[in-house]
Amino acid sequence: FNMKVVGFDVRQSQELTNSLGFSYLPLQELLKTADIVTIHVPYSQETHHLINKDNIFLIRKGALLVNTSRGAVVETDALFQAITQDHLGGAALDVLESEGELKEEAELLSNGKLNAEKAKSVLENHILIDLPNVIITPHMAFYTKEAEESIMETTTNNIKGVLAGTPQNIVNP
């Protein structure tokens, strides 16, 4: 595609940069230079609102934002402002910050759990869903043949490891 690929990660890997042919940049520099910003991070305290009102307008005007990680990695209000003010050229989202509230709107209204912040986020999500330059998928961007094969391989290896007395991928509380 004759493009330069850059990335940001708090844990940089020289092995990855060598094998995949990209370079690391600080987040603010990446946002200022990338035409397409794609986000693929786990959700944690460190990644909560990684893209937010303080940095979303650093993204180049007309650039695209893709989020396939978790909804709360991108602050809904910041995304809403950047899209509706025509700063971003568009967004592709496999997740929304308040997607749980979108499913349970009637319950939220009937039991009084809808505070002002949640109400604003739900409303902004509804507007984002209908914008022509926003694509939203039903939280299934992982669903590829390769992803299914990887899940199957990991599961098989985990079972073999347990049976052999050498469990892998252990998650302890």
UniProtKB/TrEMBL annotation:
InterPro entries: D-isomer_DH_CS (IPR029753), D-isomer_DH_NAD-bd (IPR006140), D-LDH-like (IPR058205), NAD(P)-bd_dom_sf (IPR036291). Pfam families: 2-Hacid_dh_C. Signal peptide: none annotated. Keywords: NAD, Oxidoreductase. The keyword Oxidoreductase applies. Residues 1-141 form the D-isomer specific 2-hydroxyacid dehydrogenase NAD-binding domain. One of its GO terms (molecular function) is NAD binding. Belongs to the D-isomer specific 2-hydroxyacid dehydrogenase family. PANTHER family: 2-HYDROXYACID DEHYDROGENASE HOMOLOG 1-RELATED. This is D-isomer specific 2-hydroxyacid dehydrogenase NAD-binding domain-containing protein.
